[in-house]
Protein: DUF6922 domain-containing protein
Amino acid sequence: MRKNKLPEFLKKYFWDVDFEKIDEEKGALFIIHRFLDRGNDKAIRWMWRTYSKNLISEVITKRRGFSPKTANFWADLLNIDKRKVVCLQTPYLKMRQMHWPY
Structure:
C-alpha cells in the first residue's frame, strides 16, 4: 500500500477520478475541497485529523466552486472574514448567477 493512499471508506467521494491515483499529500487542496463541499461526518473528521486548520482555511478562502451556503457555513465555523472568501465576493456571485440563476 502506498504511504499517501486515501482510506477506502473515502472512495465514494471520488467517483469522477481514479481513486487509486489520488495522493493524500499532493492532492490535498482537491481532497479538502471535496470534503468541505460533500463530506459526511466521518470524512470531515478524517480531514481534520489529516490536514491543518490553516490549509483547510486556505481552501475556503481561495477555491471557487462552493455554494454561498457552504462557503458561509465554513467561514463561520473557521472564523474566516467573509470578505476573504473568494466565492462570496460580488463578481463571482454575479458570474455564478449568469450560469445558474438560483
